[in-house]
Amino acid sequence: MKVLFDEDVPAKLARSLSRHEIHTVVTMQWGGIKNGALLQLIEREGFDVFLTGDKNMENQQQLEGRPFGVLIMSAINWPVVRPHIHKISAAIDEARPGTLKTIDCGVFIARLKRDSE
Fold first, then answer.
1. How far is CA 24 from CA 14, 27, 42, 95, in A?
2. Closest CA to 47 of 55, 39, 57
3. Confidence bin at 117 (pLDDT 50/70/90)
4. Which position has the higher pLDDT, 109 or 32?
């Protein structure tokens, strides 16, 4: 599968998905491109899956019916995501064109800094 990681997806995840052809928005030099234009580029370049952590994208863009699958990660913080690599890999394997799915890969909870830190 030809997969595009959005800017917010941890790059370290790519090492664990070696069965797939992974590209990132940054390596494609698409950083800063707005979502509508980005989706058109994804179509044009023939990606099978778009992986993002942008939970608002679902409400801002028409994602269903596209010629690629869209996967939205519930978290993008690497220590939170790392234990869920198997779920992410399975979701990529199962992704189909025109579909949208949220992957439950944990939730990031910010720690409060103590005054002594």
1. 9, 5, 11, 18
2. 39
3. low
4. 32
